[in-house]
Amino acid sequence: FTSPALLPPRSPRSPALLPLRAVSVLARRAKEAEVAALLASLPVTDPLPALLGTLPSLLSARPPPAFPSRLRDSLTKRRGNLSIVAEYRLKGTGLAELGGSAAPAIVSKLIRVGGAAAAAVMADPRMGGCDYPDVAAFVAENETARGGVPGPLPVVSSDLVVTEAQVARAKLAGAAAVTLSAAALGKELLKTLLEAAAAFGLEAVVFCGSEEEVVGAVGLGATIVCIAAEEDVEVKKEWRERSIPEGVCAVCLISSAPDALLTEVEEAWRLRDAGFNAAWVCDCLYKAGADPAEQAGAIIGAMKAKSSVKWFSAKGKSGRGEGAKEYLGDIMM
Ligand SMILES: O=C(O)c1ccccc1NCC(=O)[C@H](O)[C@H](O)COP(=O)(O)O
């Protein structure tokens, strides 16, 4: 793949690809209506109502259920390492035109073997062109890797979650975690859904568009926070240092630049240097091409590479000036 000279000015992201928080309250209403219609139309054999019915007793457990930590553990490596959450969706990505080769089972394997620490599936058909069965397909594909190296990745169900029913659907699909948007939910609903996720044994990735939202999410006990804001990495670094305590996993969304260049790789290196545990990426994994040197696995590898933005550009392939920060002992672990 190609990358421009170091960190040129970014072109504004396409409005169609703005993070979900940009759509907030109207989208929340539409989603509530959609979930209500779904619940009303379920066949009597569907397990969703029964699972939802267990929620009150799960919530009344004392002490209250805590989050599991499979996703957080997978994303939290030693300092100086950046993990990648690779998101799958069909709408608005370079996958849209690939037909069968963009099927969940194929992309799931590509990103697992490519070295991602977690997979995410956007489970909103209108926004992402996929649905909860695609989450289940990712989970099933990952299960085929049980006992292997790398083993199954935790799968995040990335819907605009506004009701407990969606958390229950994620659970039934086998997801390890759900996404929650601080801006779309507001504090009270965010608290309710964080509790519902923990009660169902799921983790939650709380997307935050401002430092205030980060503080709010951490105050509510969020264990994984994803900053989704257009600010420069230096600003996000300040938010992380001031407002994300040790023990809370710090993730940052890298939204795709609307061009064929892979400036996102250098953004990942900057996030690693800023102390983030993980980057959440989507279209930039699929926009370069389907050649082995360009596809998602190659880009994940480049994002995780121990390269330095001071000495090395993503377009260089020689490795000269590579700024590895590890000791041999770290590499051997
Ligand atoms: O931004 C949010 O608040 C949010 C909430 C819940 C789930 C996901 C959220 N944002 C991420 C996204 O909307 C997409 O993952 C993102 O647009 C991917 O972008 P791109 O690679 O630029 O297509």
TrEMBL record:
Domain of life from the UniProt record: Eukaryota
Metabolic or biological pathway: Amino-acid biosynthesis; L-tryptophan biosynthesis; L-tryptophan from chorismate: step 4/5
- Enzyme Commission code(s) on record: 4.1.1.48
Looking up InterPro entries in the UniProt record yields: Aldolase_TIM (IPR013785), Indole-3-glycerol_P_synth (IPR045186), Indole-3-glycerol_P_synth_dom (IPR013798), RibuloseP-bd_barrel (IPR011060)
Q: Which Gene3D superfamilies match?
A: Aldolase class I
Keyword Amino-acid biosynthesis appears in the UniProt entry: yes
Q: What chemistry does it catalyse, as a reaction equation?
A: 1-(2-carboxyphenylamino)-1-deoxy-D-ribulose 5-phosphate + H(+) = (1S,2R)-1-C-(indol-3-yl)glycerol 3-phosphate + CO2 + H2O
Limits of the Indole-3-glycerol phosphate synthase domain: 70-243
A Pfam family that this protein carries is: IGPS
Assigned keywords, A-Z: Amino-acid biosynthesis, Aromatic amino acid biosynthesis, Decarboxylase, Lyase, Signal, Tryptophan biosynthesis
> What protein is this chain from?
indole-3-glycerol-phosphate synthase
The species is: Tetraparma gracilis
